[in-house]
Specification:
The chain has 239 residues and is of the alpha/beta class. The chain has one domain: Rossmann fold, CATH 3.40.50. The chain is 42% helix and 16% strand. Strands 3-2-1-4-5-6-7 form a seven-stranded parallel sheet, sandwiched between helices. The longest helix has 29 residues. It is globular and about 50 Å long. The termini are far apart.
Length: 239
C-alpha cells in the first residue's frame, strides 16, 4: 500500500473478520492503506482470510480469539500491538444468532449470543481504549442491526444483544469523545451473507456486505471535528 493512502498510518482490528461483513470491512479498510488484524474464532479461518487479503496487496494479520473471554481478548490485543503497533481503529463485528421463542431459549444459547454480540464488543473496546487514549484519537465502530430497534418473534436473545450494543455505543461515545475517540454504531437491515441467508428472499434486493463496508469507510474518513454517532442502513427495495 502507498504511504499516501488515507489510512496508511492506521492499525485496525476487525472482529468476525474472516468472512461476510467483517471480511468486506477489512478489505475496504485495507484498500485505504490500513494494516489489519483479523479476529476469528479459529486460527485456520483467520489465517485463510488474512492470506486472501495479502494476495490483494493488503497488509493483514489473522489471529484467533474468543471475544467473550477476557483473557483471550487480552492476549489477542497484546499480540496485535506487539506485531503491528497501537490500534487506532476497532470494528466490533463478531456476532452470532440463535432464534427461538423467549421461553424456549436455553441458557447456554442466551449466554453465547449476549457474550459474543454485546460483552465481546465491550471487552475488545475496553482493551484497546488505553492505546487510543494515549494517541488522543481513534475510531470504535460497532456493527449492530435494525434488530436493535425492532422486535420480532423468536428474536429475544439477538434483539436484546443489539439493543444493548446500541446503548453501549452511545455511552462509550460520551466517555471517549474528550480523548478524540469517535464511537459509532451501524445498524444494517437484511444483509445477504452466509451468516443470515434469509431463505425465500431475493438476494439481489438485499443489502450486500460491501454496503456495510462502505458505511464504515465513510465513518473513518470523517473530518476530525465531527463524528456520526449512528447509521441505519436499509435496502432500496424490500427483499
Amino acid at each position: 500500500m502507498q504511504n499516501n493512502a488515507p489510512l496508511s498510518h492506521e492499525i485496525a482490528i476487525v472482529t468476525g473478520g474472516s468472512r461476510g461483513i467483517g471480511l468486506a470491512i477489512a478489505r475496504s479498510l485495507g484498500r485505504l492503506g490500513a494494516r489489519l488484524a483479523l479476529c476469528a474464532t479459529t486460527a485456520e479461518s483467520a489465517t485463510r482470510a488474512a492470506s486472501a487479503l495479502e494476495a490483494e496487496g493488503i497488509n493483514a494479520l489473522g489471529l484467533a480469539a474468543d471475544v467473550s473471554d477476557p483473557n483471550s481478548v487480552r492476549r489477542f490485543v497484546s499480540s496485535v500491538q506487539a506485531k503491528l503497533g497501537d490500534i487506532s481503529i476497532l470494528v466490533n463485528n463478531a456476532g452470532v444468532g440463535v432464534f427461538h421463542p423467549s421461553h424456549q431459549i436455553e441458557e447456554a444459547d442466551w449466554d453465547r449470543v449476549l457474550g459474543t454480540n454485546l460483552t465481546g464488543a465491550w471487552l475488545m473496546s475496553r482493551e484497546v481504549a488505553p492505546q487510543m487514549i494515549r494517541q488522543k484519537r481513534g475510531h470504535i465502530i460497532h456493527i449492530a442491526s435494525l434488530a436493535g430497534k425492532n422486535t420480532f418473534a423468536g428474536g429475544g436473545a439477538y434483539c436484546a444483544s443489539k439493543w444493548g450494543l446500541r446503548g453501549l455505543a452511545g455511552c462509550m461515545a460520551e466517555d471517549f469523545r474528550g480523548y478524540g475517540i469517535r464511537v459509532s454504531v451501524v445498524c444494517p437491515g437484511t444483509v445477504h451473507t452466509e451468516f443470515s441467508p434469509h431463505a425465500g428472499k431475493d438476494p439481489s434486493r438485499m443489502l450486500q456486505a460491501s454496503d456495510v463496508a462502505h458505511v464504515v469507510e465513510m465513518l473513518v474518513l470523517q473530518a476530525p471535528q465531527s463524528f456520526i454517532s449512528e447509521v441505519d442502513l436499509r435496502p432500496t427495495q424490500k427483499p
